[in-house]
Amino acid sequence: MRIAVLSPVWFPVPPTGYGGIEWVVSLLADGLVDAGHDVTLFASGDSRTRATLACVYDVAPSAQIGLSQVEIRHALACYERADDFDVINDHSGPTSAVIAGTVRTPTVHTVHGPLLGEPGDLYEQIARVAPRTRLVSISMNQRAPHPDLPWIANVPNALDFSVYPMQPQRGDYLLFLGRMTPEKGAHRAVAVAIEAGLPLKIAGKRREPAEQLYFHEFVEPHLRDGQIEYVGEVTHGEKVELLQNARATLFPIDWEEPFGLVMIESMACGTPVIATRRGSVPEVIEDGRTGIVVDDYAQMVGAIEAADALEPIELRRAAEERFSRERMVADYVAAYEELGG
Q1: Is residue 144 a contact partner of residue 116, using CB atoms and an 8 Å limit?
Q2: CA separation (Å) from 26 to 272, 309, 329?
Q3: What percentage of the chain carries pLDDT values higher than 70?
Q4: What is the pLDDT of residue 19?
Q5: Residue 186 burial by CB count (10 A; 0-12/13-18/19+): exposed, middle or buried?
Q6: pTM to 2 decimals?
Q7: pLDDT above 60 (res 193)
Q8: Is the separation of the CB atoms in 178 and 186 below 8 Å?
Q9: Angle at the Cα of 285 (from 283 to 286), degrees rounded to 5?
């Protein structure tokens, strides 16, 4: 099959730091190549891939994130070549999903964000304007606000487990990985660590003004050397080391998280996740087997002992069973074939 994979343009594929979607796109594009398909990846020119790379921007325009002209030019570079492909798999956002309605080539658009409120209403409009664009969810909970959109498949995210080595022994600190936003809940992780009397390491993106303001007001006042530490936006290698040596990863979200890649990254490294029961959490974590799920973040302190009882090898095995690259690639290929690609 001749497949175009359209990534967001804002970060390289794979990303050097923040960029969950870009990690998934990288894994998918390379996996499709390994499965024998002819794949063209539309991404920034500083990307690395086994697919044929096509780009408008030689370097990811991260400083211009959200600028519509940049996003549209990137998407059009793919769609003006639509006749070169049997199917287009778009991961770049709603704007591109609309453009897909102008071409004959079947398009599978993966929805990576939540569908509550205005974003869901936007996809309803897209479905009316571009009815041939079919949608892929990354969790069933993501679909809940709009179950009648033109869904073609549900394809959970995956990992390349070879770059997430497991650590059979755990450290003594708690870990939070995520953007500095209220819904991700770094401040809740701080409260849990203080109540438990355990050190906490915080790693995550805080580039945008809203992220900086949140960090300054709700996280920074609690930083203490050796107790509550912000280590910044880390590289992949640094992230893996943090996960390997943590006692548990805290995932105290307070929103309908569509997936939450951090959960399976932690499981892959043999570190249990303690998460609040929101969004995709019950689909990703099997409570008591692959992590601990609580109804409120205030229950996380009491869940640490139960998390300690989970075996690192079992966490890794469960993650590999459910979130392998091969499973994700096969799921996408099945969706492409259903469209007649």
Answers
A1: no
A2: 26, 34, 11
A3: 99
A4: 67
A5: buried
A6: 0.91
A7: yes
A8: yes
A9: 95
Give the span between the Cα atoms of 161 and 297, in whole angstroms. Answer: 29
- By three-state DSSP, how is residue 41 classified? strand
SS3 annotation, 225-287: CCCEEEEECCCHHHHHHHHHCEEEEEECCCCCCCCCHHHHHHHHCCCCEEEECCCCHHHHCCE
What token pair was written down for 189? Answer: 């992780």
Closest-CA residue to 78 (of 63, 60, 96) = 96
Q: What are the pLDDT digits (tens) for 27-64?
A: 999 999 999 999 999 999 999 999 999 999 999 999 89
Say if CB 88 and CB 79 are below 8 A apart.
Answer: yes
Rounded distance between C-alpha atoms, residue 123 and residue 141, angstroms: 16
CA distance 314 to 257: 25
Chain-wide mean pLDDT for the chain? Answer: 95
d(CA 50, CA 72): 25
Residue ranges with strand state E in 82-233: 87-90, 107-110, 134-137, 151-154, 173-177, 200-203, 228-232
For the record, the structure tokens of 225 come out as 């050397």
Q: Closest Cα to residue 31, out of 41, 21, 19, 42?
A: 41
What percent of the chain shows pLDDT beyond 90?
93
- Do 198 and 171 form a contact (C-beta atoms < 8 A)? no
Give the whole-angstrom CA distance, residue 240 versus residue 274.
Answer: 18
User: Amino acid identity, residue 88?
Assistant: I
List, for residues 125-150, the tens digit of each pLDDT value: 999 999 999 999 999 999 999 999 99
Torsion of CA 321, 140, 292, 260, to 10 degrees: 80
Q: What is the pLDDT of residue 155?
A: 98
Q: Long-range contacts: 188-192, Cβ < 8 Å, 24+?
A: 188/250, 188/252, 188/254, 188/297, 189/250, 189/252, 190/219, 190/222, 190/228, 191/297, 192/250, 192/252, 192/297, 192/300, 192/301
